[in-house]
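Our platform keeps sequence and structure together, in a single record for each protein. This encoding replaces a full spatial description with a residue-level series of whole-number codes. We quote a single record here, exactly as it is kept in our systems:
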Amino acid sequence: MDIALLGAPIAHLRSIRKIWVNEIIDESRWKTYITSLNAEWNGFTIFSTVMLAVDIGFLAVPGVQAAGGDSHSAAAISIYASVISSVCALIVSVILVGQIRSHDVDSVGGGVHYMARMTRNAHGDEALAVMFSLPYSLLLWA
């Protein structure tokens, strides 16, 4: 999965494991990490919106769409795939930013509660790292 997501989960997993040790958060690292993560996702939201507008603009160019019938040109199919990836990156970014904002993760207590809740499943911090890396990976695929 790391290859399909272009190595992003490993980077997030390293950061998470530096911050979340034995269910204790290092306060200074946590605040820096969550601030940069929030800024990163907000940036991805903007980039995804721009990519979506560019993709739709390319679809309007004469000759990109196949001339007739149900078949589509390779260019149109790749643009459709880019549209889907851009929309998914936008949706995931907005969901993650909303999730972070709703859990008061700026404080250490809120961060501990959030991390404990998010790492309780079978895959723990690895699943969280994959989730955190989705906007970046989807945007690169777009």
Summary: The first strand starts at residue 20 and ends at 21. Helices lie at 8-19, 27-59, 74-102, 108-118, 125-141. Residues 27-59 form the longest helix (33 residues).
